[in-house]
Predict the 3D structure of the following.
Amino acid sequence: MLQAIGLTSTRHRGLPPAVDDLTFEAGSGSVTALLGPPGSGKTSTLRLMLELEPGRGVTYFRGRPLHRVAHPAREVGVLLGDVPGHPARTVRGQLRMLCAAAGVPASRADEVLDAVGLVGLGDQRIGTLSLGMDRRLALASALLADPHTLILDEPAEGLVAREADWLHGMLRSHADRGGTVLYTTRDPKEAARSAGHVVTIDSGRLLADQEAADFSRTRLRPRVAVRSPHAARLAAIVSREARAARRSVEVVTEASSSRLSVYGSSCAEIGDTAFRHGLPVHLLADEVGDTGPASRPRDSGVLGDGLRDNGLLRDGVSDCDPLSEGEGEGKGKGGDGAAAAARPATGIGAVAAASRRAAGGPAPAVESAGAQLPPRIRRRPARGPLRPVRYELRRLFGVRSTTLIVAITLVASAAVSVVLARNGRAPLPNVLVAWPSLLPLPPAALGAGLLGALSFGDEFRYPALAAGRGTVPRRLGLLLAKLAVSAGVALSLGLLVVLVSAESLRLVYGGDLVQVPSNVMSLAASWSGLTVGCAWAGLLAAGIFRVTAAGVAAVLAVPVLMVPLIEAVPKAPTARSMSGLPGRLRELTWLQWPQEADRWVLALVRVVAHPVGTALTLSLSVLVCAYLFTSLRGRVRW
């Protein structure tokens, strides 16, 4: 059960709210359509329900608001627009990344791919998918954690009829399992055909809350669809008899001269009229507006399913439709609406029925061909701190941009090191890390900062997590995972740069040039602090401003803006020594660490005291405070 109570969006610049005091329910075991014209507030309603937009009101998912649900991804599956995934990521890689975020086994990705018919496209890039395949992947993402509720925004928009029927069949199958389905649509015919409950809104306000049958009766116009080789004569007879009986009957001849739409009559009346005048009828069916024939349970069975999959078996024929279109075309004269119903079925329908009888009786009806949900998740892994780390690792290495940035950084560092060593004036540490004086930062620091900025920049550019709130970019657990992974990548990148530079120097100039300096520990601490600090500065700035460019700007601002400001501060005429700092810290904290650790403490202090280290420390302090401030403004939990 889903209950939306008093949903009201925030007003903008004096304009009326997009959603205004909207209240409705979507029951379990049924499909509910949220119907409205473009601009009526359907998408804003869904975003308010998912707490993705500011506003008032509350939505209860089985009695709990979403921010009180322990595992939101297991409660709600969301489809908002296209697949919010990096276009260079593979289909299987996208789902495995979301598996880590939702806390489900990675094998679940293959199960949902099988259910939506994308098994053969697991290694294809998301950016190359067609619209129909994109919607299938989006539905697979929504079903990934086996949620109870599905919330979908215009899921069938732009799809061909066959794809739309398949998608709605999946939604009905999910509802038949006892789940709740809510989707938006602008087409009343689609709502009447596919939903069991219709909620109509306009300008953000509730207009009607009806069962599908009541909606069809009150909002759509029922009619009788007729196809006959003598359609013009039949139309004239029906109109003449209606005038004689003083009945309000309207007969419309459609584009095909053999097809009629009769409003205000019934199948039985039209069939009797055609029988009395000896007119053959090839199609006679009740329709609601333009939704197509009223549906009835369809035959399953092996052959019937195969014929439907090939588009040969027509769905949705009503009980008063005596013949399918394929049969009726070949009958010609001698058929009529009343007598044809008593004739034995022939053609495709007869073959399917014979196959069903041979299998041992009638098979249960199905909602849609091929609409088969993935199996239930029987065992869920326990929630732990490694779940966001696994997600971040799959996000980082699931696209080629990470490998490309690392490769460019290594090649650039090796080239700069060889050039610096040629003139012989640059110190050996600067040569190994490829940091000439004319560059604000070495290539490794810039590469680490760019990877850190992409860590949060991609989250907001391709918001795969925000919709389901299983793990959102503002959550502390994801922040800690990103900090840990970006630090590990930065340290690895810094080490690789030194090793590649040393090997390049040995190859070009021989082995005598590269020697281990005496202050290697201090240099290692400085180099590690620089790379990790740049990675964290890019990560935090991108998380605050929600764009990758802000992270890159924060990294470049350290040497370009912060260092000159710090160097401009007047220095004292006499400097004080910090040589006794480790001993004083030991006395203050009552901790007895090894004497060897004193060297590391002093090395760390020297790193922070350096202008670049001081600038980086101040920048990180400001960014951490800003990130925490912006995070505490929302409903955030681990």
Remarks:
- Confidence is low (pLDDT under 50) at residues 291-370.
- The first helix runs from residue 42 to 49.
- The CA atoms of residues 300 and 518 lie 80 Å apart.
